[in-house]
């Protein structure tokens, strides 16, 4: 059987699939050619990440597909229900990238509270001519320890983020419509651990209480944080979005940053991805990454081997 890993797959995933008797194709096929390629090469399984879309047109055009796999959590680039109605298995890897995304969240938080994103832009330009001026400009940093982190969406990635926050000595609060409470276990290198219960509260109360907010929700019909929500946030709040573009109103975000209502933002995802707005890309108070939340070697290894395991189980 043949597997098309159109957005790539780790070497460990390829080896596991080949050991299970599958042929793995890693040719990158353009979106408009995917259906033809699948049919011409008798592909049984298509694996994607966030780039390739598997919509109704491809599902209808490719009756030989047995499995659609998503390397990661969100499956908004796949018509999941329609695929299942056609008898196609749809799989993903919800647990594999949690730690990687959570670490990126804290990369943006540390960048924001210590101005690293802006300092790294300006030191090469002015470091030799205006060292004291830059030192003064970036002198009013903030510690994360002792502050309140509001986590919107306390699923796997939200919980991984909570563990890191607790390890830093932060207070953690959460809002989640589907998870009323959760026990979060923070494990240490020597085998010791502590467990604390996080009880979900209303979004409005989280917005009023949190010093920093991080979003971990799937794609939405509307904004989680729009103009109305920005008004009730604490002054000087920091916001990080490593979840999905479109959950924050970016026009309202820029206004809030310019007014000082929001101290900084960290964005890994964007409303108009893959062509983020220039007002976002050029803003000195936004720490930016190009949708790389799960892009660590460790996460990709876990994703590849987990996908392989599921495929072998389903088709063997």
From TrEMBL:
GO terms assigned for molecular function: NAD binding; oxidoreductase activity, acting on the CH-OH group of donors, NAD or NADP as acceptor
The UniProt record lists the keyword NAD: yes
Pfam families xref list: 2-Hacid_dh (PF00389), 2-Hacid_dh_C (PF02826)
Domain D-isomer specific 2-hydroxyacid dehydrogenase NAD-binding intervals: 107-293
Domain D-isomer specific 2-hydroxyacid dehydrogenase catalytic: 9-315
Family to which this protein belongs: Belongs to the D-isomer specific 2-hydroxyacid dehydrogenase family.
Entry-linked Gene3D superfamilies: NAD(P)-binding Rossmann-like Domain
Keyword field: NAD, Oxidoreductase
Cross-referenced SUPFAM superfamilies: Formate/glycerate dehydrogenase catalytic domain-like, NAD(P)-binding Rossmann-fold domains
Species this chain originates from: Flavobacterium cutihirudinis
Keyword hit for Oxidoreductase: yes
Designated name of the protein: D-3-phosphoglycerate dehydrogenase
């Amino acid at each position: 059987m043949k597997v098309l890993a159109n957005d790539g797959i780790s070497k460990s995933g390829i080896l596991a699939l080949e050991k299970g008797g599958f042929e793995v194709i890693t040719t990158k096929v353009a979106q408009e050619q995917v259906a033809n390629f699948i049919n011409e090469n008798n592909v049984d399984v298509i694996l994607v990440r966030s780039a390739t879309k598997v919509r109704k047109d491809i599902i209808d055009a490719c009756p030989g597909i047995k499995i659609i796999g998503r390397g990661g959590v969100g499956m908004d680039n796949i018509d999941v229900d329609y695929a299942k109605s056609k008898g196609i298995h749809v799989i993903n890897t919800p647990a594999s990238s949690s730690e990687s995304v959570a670490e990126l969240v804290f990369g943006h938080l540390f960048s924001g509270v210590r101005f690293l994103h802006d300092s790294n832009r300006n030191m090469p330009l002015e470091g030799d001519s205006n060292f004291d001026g830059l030192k003064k400009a970036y002198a009013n940093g903030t510690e994360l320890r002792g502050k309140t982190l509001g986590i919107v969406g306390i699923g796997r990635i939200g919980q991984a983020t909570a563990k890191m926050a607790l390890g830093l000595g932060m207070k953690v609060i959460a809002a989640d419509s589907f998870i009323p409470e959760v026990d979060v276990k923070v494990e240490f290198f020597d085998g010791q651990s502590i467990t604390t219960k996080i009880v979900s509260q209303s979004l409005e109360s989280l917005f009023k209480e949190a010093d920093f907010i991080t979003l971990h929700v799937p794609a939405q019909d509307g904004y989680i944080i729009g103009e109305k929500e920005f008004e009730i946030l604490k002054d000087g709040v920091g916001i990080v979005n490593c979840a999905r573009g479109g959950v924050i109103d970016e026009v309202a975000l820029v206004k809030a940053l310019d007014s000082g209502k929001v101290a900084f933002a960290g964005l890994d995802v964007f409303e108009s991805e893959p062509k983020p707005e220039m007002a976002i890309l050029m803003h000195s108070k936004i720490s930016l990454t190009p949708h790389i939340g799960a892009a660590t070697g460790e996460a990709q290894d876990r994703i590849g081997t987990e996908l392989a395991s599921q495929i072998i189980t389903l088709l063997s």
